Amino acid sequence: MRVTRSLSIKLISLLPCAVIAVLAMSGAAASCNRNAVLKGVNIAGAEFNADQLPGILYKNYIYPNSAELDYFASIGANVIRLPFLWERIQPALFGDLDPAELQNIAATVASARSHGMCVILDVHDYGGYRGKAIGTSIVPASAFFNLWTRLAAKFPDTSATAFGLMNEPNKLSIGQWADLAQKTVNAIRKSGAKNLILVSGGRWSGVHDWEKQIGETSNADAFAHFQDPTQRTLIEVHQYADPYYSGTGQTCVPAAAFGKMFDDITRWAKTNNQQLFLGEFGVPPNQQCLEALDAILARIQDASVWRGWTYWAAGSWLGTYPLNIEPKNGTDMPQTGVLKKFLSK
């Protein structure tokens, strides 16, 4: 997207890093394994205030609280996508992962696991580090491999965590990102990690322009032959319903507009033996937009291609943000009624 933890989680965050892997594997069975269709929500907050680094927890950024996880589990969600910043988890390129941030993420994973929920670890940096694109002399590709092999070592439980390599990597060309993503998946697999991986399409990852050549290639061409030796990688796409397809504004295009759009990318996936995950989509709570939301979800019911979705977004700090589905005073937001229809399928 362009734009109070409970006592138990606070106690978890005080524990040493040595127990992180144990925390991530404790509790009830989670659902990240690829045979499950993952349906849930982005819970925003840990990626907030990227201009405040490292930032202060509860002042500049926040992680999901137990009440949020309780609520989304209760309506049928089995996954949350957890956006966070590369700069916070790894303050220096090639350096150690920050112990406090590791504990924050591990606590979220442990709490989600106790609700039977998968956590997608989403590096939410748009293809860069401190504003500089990956693949430059300042941020070499090897630094990105280093981040993910370190994260993979800390979160080895394939049922509890999936890896979202990079949100909307628009700082790179589509071709550059596809090449980097393939090499990163190769590095993760070489490290021995078997977790589910989600690879965003290039630029803003939009379904609406998947087959459009932008620069030297299109997402359709760049990802047609993407491979994972374990066959546990999904191609992540995003799609908003406003006229600019950007997740901004208060109006939406007619619901009928999403028919061909999603049929085309579904056909692309089948032709190229790929599977898809709708990592971000969301609408304001008016009738036309709710119809668009219903139309989007109706188009991704073929589980041979569509392996799940996470609505954008919820979060205790989102306030009056129009797409927010954090319940207010115990009342569901209008968008949640549409989501529940598909969570129950």
Automatic annotation (TrEMBL):
It holds the Pfam family Cellulase. Keywords: Glycosidase, Hydrolase, Signal. Residues 1-30 form the signal peptide. The keyword Hydrolase applies. Residues 42-314 form the Glycoside hydrolase family domain. PROSITE patterns: PROKAR_LIPOPROTEIN (PS51257). One of its GO terms (molecular function) is hydrolase activity, hydrolyzing O-glycosyl compounds. InterPro entries: GH, Glyco_hydro_5. GO terms for biological process: glucan catabolic process. Belongs to the glycosyl hydrolase 5 (cellulase A) family. This is Cellulase.
